[in-house]
């Protein structure tokens, strides 16, 4: 009888351990199986070893139509000058009005390379009570070269929440000191209860991640009032930054188009990258041409070998095409409305 009770107790304990949540499983020093959804599953093809990748549904709902009709024109507008930016709004979001266009020198300090600039805009919709910060993508080959070289150089602390790449940090600070801080303080004073929508594509996506995080750290806005949506975002910060970000923002989506190469840069397990940079949640992966009606995956892991990370063949063309739109020239054309 005693032997049977012991066997039963061991069996119950094993079942309880197996049914642990992913977070509890990892905290106990075990691995969680993404396939079986069990702790320490003896047979497992996809093990989760970092809490940041524990499966979790987002706390907000991703809206494909809203992404096409509102978010896409926002990062299209940031890729051009003030006149065409307002045309982007007029063609797609008529109640949105440009507030400020900021252009700053964000070059690498090397005297050898030509000057490069970073740009962003703010906008206001008093009807829908929305403020916008939208950041421009990489716009020259020299700037792209600077970003890539910086991946192997340095990172800077982001307040008390991990590290981000030095290039992204310095570029954002240049914009912040170049007019963005005063602009956001003025907008906050005039419209204290408005939502803040933050967005960008490519380099602009990384700066949008930093920007949304920065205004929270600066005490200007509460995370519940911020919506972040990026497209083609490169890895921006380390594990601590990414974990803080996803535990702070309910509405934070990283849209990834099929085989876009940039969300995989820098490669997470690069030998020289001892900090192991990570994406924060939540990836929205379109494994298609992103035309209207296309399916997409709401990825429950932050940055493991799931969703877009399954792709070994990567593409620059997918990086420049989002929502079935060629982003090269889209903003300069006034973001023509899709029929």
TrEMBL record:
GO BP terms: namely: lipid metabolic process
Q: What is this protein called?
A: Fungal lipase-type domain-containing protein
Q: Where is the Fungal lipase-type domain?
A: 132-269
Cleavable signal peptide: 1-18
**Which Pfam families does this chain map to?**
Lipase_3
UniProt KW keywords: Signal
Q: Would the keyword Signal turn up in this protein's UniProt record? A: yes
Q: What is the lineage of its organism?
A: Eukaryota, Metazoa, Ecdysozoa, Nematoda, Chromadorea
Question: Out of the domains of life, which is the source?
Answer: Eukaryota
């Amino acid at each position: 009888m005693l032997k049977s009770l012991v066997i039963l107790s061991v069996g119950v304990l094993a079942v309880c351990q197996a049914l642990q949540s992913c977070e509890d499983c990892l905290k106990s020093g075990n691995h969680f199986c993404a396939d079986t959804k069990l702790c320490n599953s003896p047979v497992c093809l996809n093990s989760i070893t970092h809490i940041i990748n524990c499966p979790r549904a987002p706390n907000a709902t991703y809206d494909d139509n809203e992404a096409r009709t509102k978010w896409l024109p926002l990062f299209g507008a940031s890729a051009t000058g003030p006149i065409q930016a307002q045309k982007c709004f007029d063609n797609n979001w008529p109640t949105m009005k440009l507030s400020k266009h900021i252009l700053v020198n964000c070059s690498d300090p090397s005297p050898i390379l030509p000057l490069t600039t970073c740009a962003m805009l703010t906008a206001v919709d008093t009807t829908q009570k929305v403020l916008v910060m939208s950041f421009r993508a990489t716009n020259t080959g020299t700037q792209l070269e600077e970003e890539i070289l910086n991946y192997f150089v340095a990172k800077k602390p982001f307040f008390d929440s991990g590290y981000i790449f030095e290039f992204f940090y310095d570029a954002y600070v240049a914009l912040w000191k170049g007019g963005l801080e005063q602009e956001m303080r003025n907008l906050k004073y005039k419209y204290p209860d408005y939502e803040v929508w933050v967005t960008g594509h490519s380099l602009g996506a990384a700066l949008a991640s930093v920007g949304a995080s920065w205004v929270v750290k600066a005490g200007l806005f509460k995370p519940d009032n911020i919506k972040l949506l990026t497209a083609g975002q490169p890895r921006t910060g380390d594990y601590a930054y990414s974990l803080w970000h996803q535990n702070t923002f309910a509405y934070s989506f990283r849209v990834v188009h099929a085989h876009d190469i940039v969300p995989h840069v820098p490669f997470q397990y690069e030998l020289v990258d001892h900090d192991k940079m990570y994406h924060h949640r939540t990836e929205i992966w379109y494994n298609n041409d992103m035309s209207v009606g296309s399916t997409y995956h709401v990825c429950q892991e932050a940055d493991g070998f799931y969703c877009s990370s399954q792709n070994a063949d990567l593409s620059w063309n997918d990086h420049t095409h989002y929502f079935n739109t060629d982003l090269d020239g889209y903003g300069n054309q006034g973001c023509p409305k899709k029929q």
